[in-house]
Write a structure and sequence with these properties.
The chain has 121 residues and is mainly β. Helices cover 0% and strands 54% of the residues. Strands 2, 4, 5, 6, 9, 10 and 11 form a seven-stranded mixed β-sheet that branches. A four-stranded antiparallel β-sheet has the order 1-3-8-7, with no helix packed on it.
């Protein structure tokens, strides 16, 4: 069972920066898409940023120009650099990954446990 662990959440002031990091707890044969989602209190989980194994990225309109997603294909890790943070960025941030666990094509899709980000003065 593939498991992901996030780190780097915490508190930041408006206009500040934080970086989130996500890594698997074990070897994964092949990771395709990786992403960060977030869920604010009382709201549905939403896509923040996504990156393919080829490095193609997609961002939510609310974070374009402020957040940058990156990955290390050798380590199957994904980062989210967040700058110019706003109070509305406050949420639990979840890492996501999908791919294959073996050459025989056993597919997986999994989430991390989430890391809290609070933006306030």
């Amino acid at each position: 069972q593939v498991q992901l662990v996030e780190s780097g959440g915490g508190h930041a002031q408006p206009g500040g920066s934080l970086e989130l990091h996500c890594a698997p707890t074990q070897f994964i044969f092949s990771v395709e898409d990786m992403a960060w989602y977030r869920q604010a209190p009382g709201k549905e989980r939403e896509l923040v940023a996504q990156i393919s194994v080829y490095g193609n990225t997609k961002y939510a309109d609310a974070v374009k120009g402020r957040f940058t997603i990156s990955r290390d294909n050798g380590k199957n890790t994904v980062n989210l650099q967040m700058s110019e943070l706003k109070p509305e960025d406050t949420a639990v941030y979840y890492c996501y990954a999908d791919g294959f666990t073996s050459p025989r094509g056993t597919r997986f899709a999994t989430w991390g446990q989430g890391t809290q980000v609070i933006v306030s003065s």
